[in-house]
Specification:
The chain is an alpha/beta fold and about 375 residues long. About 40% of the residues lie in helices and about 15% in strands.
């Protein structure tokens, strides 16, 4: 995991009133002034711990929020970023990475922070609109120019002549989405377009169990075609593009579309599978950290700004699907292909259930994947 961030050292002196206040430097408080007897922090620093493909999104969003917050509060805010595989980032926060907010690839990784460290309240996902998912994406394929292997959908990935590049589901959020999308498309193929309702029908238990067996076999066949598992989405992209390994890369739709203008020059092209999974990255304030550092107000405003018209426009500009703004959806709709999407809640019963079956030690991923020797 490559973590790019800068944290100040801690200042542990006593609090001095009337003139200025020393506090933990990690909270970003650099100076205070008195305004009619009320201390106002002149500057504040936030750390946003995020997953790989959001670098460009947050570079622009952070600048926009800083401008907004200066006008709104008079404070100068600096936002520092940390990026890596979503699961790795979650573990880093649990291990002490002093995040004010997290913006991770899947709700399970935020739940893990809440469960294993208590840094985030248990009902965090209900605090913001759309279950704390201000933007969405899906999955797409990147293939060599001319698509020499004629890869059109998920089922082509199990062919013996195809090498697939996808990150490690143990460390990467998009890798888990990729894995579950493969599993889900087999269920849809075996059970039909109404597969979601059939899976909930007690009379269909036998058919559903047979479909699950076929899904497991298919996913296993795809992973036999994976020559290397990188930790995160950006690493997998480098393996495919820079190292020129593999015939097809599975990655975030937004990550692939973001580089669309350069794909032809790089000898690559996009393939969008007709059926895929709705991926909803999530955001959360890290409660105990912001309360300790005194940054809750600005941290909450930062996440709310993702839901503003400005925030949603930046989301669409960087090829994420805006979750709440109709204006942004209309503006950017032509850049998103029409895809039949299914959700993790409908097909897998949510992240906790899916993870307990597929991604825990000894789960189905461990059962089907044998590392290359």
């Amino acid at each position: 995991m490559s973590i790019r961030f800068r944290l100040s050292g801690f200042i542990r002196n006593s609090v001095l009133f009337f003139f200025f206040l020393f506090a933990i430097a990690g909270c970003g408080v650099k100076q205070e002034k008195q305004t009619e007897g009320v201390a106002v922090q002149e500057s504040v620093t936030l750390l946003n711990v995020s997953y790989d493909p959001t670098r460009e999104l947050f570079k622009e969003f952070n600048a926009a929020f800083s401008e907004y917050w200066k006008k709104e509060s008079g404070q100068v805010v600096e936002i520092q970023q940390s990026h890596g595989g979503s699961g790795s980032q979650s573990r880093a926060v649990i291990g002490g990475l002093d995040a004010d907010v997290v913006s991770l690839a899947l709700a399970y990784d935020v739940d893990a922070i809440s469960e294993h460290s208590g840094l985030i309240v248990e009902d965090w996902q209900h605090r913001l609109a759309n279950n704390s998912a201000p933007y969405a994406s899906t999955l797409a394929f990147l293939v060599r120019k001319g698509n020499p292997k004629n890869i059109r959908d998920w089922f082509d990935l199990s062919r013996d002549d195809v090498q697939v590049i996808t990150p490690n589901p143990k460390t990467s959020g998009v890798a888990r989405w990729n894995y579950l999308a493969m599993w889900g498309v087999v269920l849809r193929k075996e059970l039909g377009p109404d597969f979601v309702s059939r899976m909930k029908d007690p009379s269909q238990i036998g058919e559903v169990e047979m479909a699950q067996v076929k899904a497991k076999a298919f996913v296993a066949s795809v992973y036999r075609n994976v020559p290397v598992l990188d930790q995160g989405a950006r690493g997998a992209t480098n393996t495919f593009i820079q190292r020129k390994i593999g015939d097809v890369l599975i990655n975030w739709e937004n990550e692939i579309l973001l580089g669309g203008k350069e794909l032809d020059e790089a000898g690559l092209e996009i393939v969008i599978p007709p059926v895929s999974m709705l991926a909803e990255p999530v955001v959360a304030v890290v409660d105990k950290n912001v309360d300790r550092k005194g940054t809750r107000k600005v941290a909450e405003a930062y996440l709310l700004f993702l839901y503003s018209e400005i925030g949603q426009d930046i989301v669409g500009k960087h090829y994420y699907r805006p979750s709440v703004s109709e204006k942004a959806r209309a503006k950017y709709k032509d850049q998103f292909p029409e895809v039949e999407l299914f959700s993790i809640d409908d097909v897998f019963g949510g992240w906790k259930k899916a993870s307990a079956i597929h991604f825990v030690d000894g789960g189905t991923f461990d059962q089907i994947y044998a590392p290359k020797k």
